[in-house]
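Data availability (excerpt). The following record was deposited with the supplementary files.
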Amino acid sequence: MNPRSTQRFRRATALLAIAWALFAFVLGVRGQLYAVSTPSPPFSYSGIAGRAVLHGTTAAAAEAGLAPGDKLLSVDDLPVAVWVRDGRWRLEVGVANRYRVEKRDGALREVALAPVPAGERPFPLEQFFALAIPAVGAVYLGIGLLVWGLRRERRDAWALLVFSATMAAQLFVSGPGTSTQTVFVWANMPLIGAASFFLFSVYPFEPASFVRQPGLRAIPWALAFAAAALVPLEGLLGLPAGVGAGLGFFLAMGLCTASLGIVAAERWRNRTDHGTDRADVLLIGGLFGFMPVIGLMMFEYWLGTTYPWYVALLGLAVFPAAVGVGIVRNQLFDIRLAARSSAAYGAVTLGITGLFALTISFADALFAGFNVDARTPGFSIVFLFFAILIFNPVRNRVQRFVDGFFDRDRAGYRKAVREISEAMVSMLSVQEIVERILVAVTDTMGLERALVLLQGDDQQSFGVAASRGDWDEDAEEFELPVDHPLCRQLWMRREELTRGDFDDEEDPEVRELCRDVFDTLDVELLVPVLYGVDLLGVIAVGRKLSGDRLAADDRQLLRTLANQSSIAIENAKAFDEIAKLNETLEARVEERTEELRRTQAQLVQSEKMRSLGQLVAGVAHELNNPIGFVHANLQLLNEYIDKLDSDDERTRARAREAIRKLLARSREGTGRVTQIVQDLRSFSRMDQAELSDADLNEEIERTLGLAEPRFKDQVRVERDFAPLPRVRCYAGQLNQVFMNLVMNACDAMEGQGTLRIRTRPVPAGVRLEFSDDGPGLAKEIQGRIFEPFFTTKGVGQGTGLGLSISHGIVERHGGRLWVESEPGQGATFVIELPLEAPPAV
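Predicted structure:
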């Protein structure tokens, strides 16, 4: 059966068990209502496997000679098993019934008594148990459902649910009811035995015989179903009434007793395993819960008792809770330590109490010898007060001694954790951390050996980082792949694991792979070292030198140490990474700085070329005019040269005069071309150009000359230039700034308006102002216009890099660039520069 079909089978059987319990609950409620509305016999009784024993009688029944402990044999000549199953509901008010009983001394007696009328409840204890026992059944079913909901993937949780459902069904219908209810009780009894046998053969240990032959678990179920089916078929098979009930009863008792025997045997065989805590709880629960019930039932069946056997059912309520906690938590308290400490506390308490009483008695005798009346109220109170003062320090000292004796391991563990926590603060080596952990684990807990697996540099496997104790060569070289099922389980469960934790694994391949790790390393426990969602490593520990198993305190210490080590390991790794980064930090910073310089230069040049690209059309027009003019003059020059060969002196003179004028005008055209080319060359100088002295008024004029085609006679330029001192700067970079401000002004005015340029010397250098009469800038925009890629232009009309680069250029010159604007009143960009820019770094 594959894991998926196994889960489907478990889910189906669990739902069937729940439905069985709910059906029993309906029967129980129906029986309670029916019992209230019908006459009842003049006695209370309890039945076991078709036999009935009286536990209470009415006054009339007592006068007739019936008493608690009598065995009911027949009613109106009907055997008691038949009457309990069928005839009880034929009682009629006012009609006497004949009851045949066997007295406790063996005498037989037959009496005639009328039933108790409906509505009268002469037996309050019976009424109490009629409500209390179904409540215990509700506890069983609730705990079974809760545990199954929390651990649905585990086989022991499924077994507990089936057991709890069958027990709940029995408890729901244990009160008075109909014949259907009685048949249900008898038929359900063997199912309880089979369910308990199944549960105790799975939890807390699985016997080796059941591992080799899982089909053995089906035998009790087959016997239980056969006994249950025999109950309603007694009449058809011609069997005496109660045979099926008796067979089911003895089968259930035998299976329950065998179940406890299996737990006890496996507890002894696995006495060094961590599951002994759960086994101890089961055995104690069985001895103090089930065994009294089984004993009372057997005693009542054979001998009869004064009190009903079902009194012991109330003690069963704590049993499923203990089993459920063991399944969910997978680790219980150390019940043996609790028992020893409780016994010690009890013995000490009795000793102190006896000593106190002896002191009081001795004082009374002493005072009587001196004829002092110690019974005087005032004297007694004073003496008692002083006695308490004397004994209270003794009591405190004894209590501290007992606490220290039974809590010495915990005190040692707390001290170890404190010392390790303090030590790890200063540890910056992973190897030192894991070795310190191993020392703490082996010395403090008394382990024979332990090792730590950490993830390797390839992050593909966990290898042995450190070990302590006697390990063979295979263990020292052991590697655990990160994709191993055990690593996945440690990461998902986030808790320590033992070999027995994989007994419920449905996939046999996964189960064997995980068990092989424990067998190869020969360890008892694997503890994950987790940091956040990452599995950093695993702490593997062996057995204790004393031979004791690893208790709850040991596991808690290991979890704490794993948590401490995870933080320390991460800190150490971070320190190593920082150290490695520091070694190459200077080179990386220099490399990054140079890369940023290159990128910045590329951005500046790119923005400059973008600005030049916007001027291409206008510059081409400016170049075409003088070139076309010179070209036309050259054509005319050819004609006038031909006229120099004329015989007419006046013609030759006019030709020479025209040639001189053509050459002069051509020189003007070529000069204009030269100026435009020179302006372009000056504007496009690379950022790495050397510092040079420049007249910024001339640089602005050069920029305006290049931008003139953009004005298109619609943008009027007003110059307010004052004589400026020469500034030592990177003129090509400043030209880019001037061009960007001029082009932005034209864009803001949409190609029509007035551009005002004002230059002034200031004490610290020069001040340049570029003003337009465009729409202006809002306050929230002014704070962002110098951010890279921020633009107010539409898509495809600007990159937003121009002003950012301009701002950077001005800052590299040691100056400032800012904007002054009000919405609707244009904008003014102000530049202040020192007389000498700092050299480039």
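Summary of structural features: Residues 123-329 form a domain with the Rhopdopsin 7-helix transmembrane proteins fold (CATH 1.20.1070).
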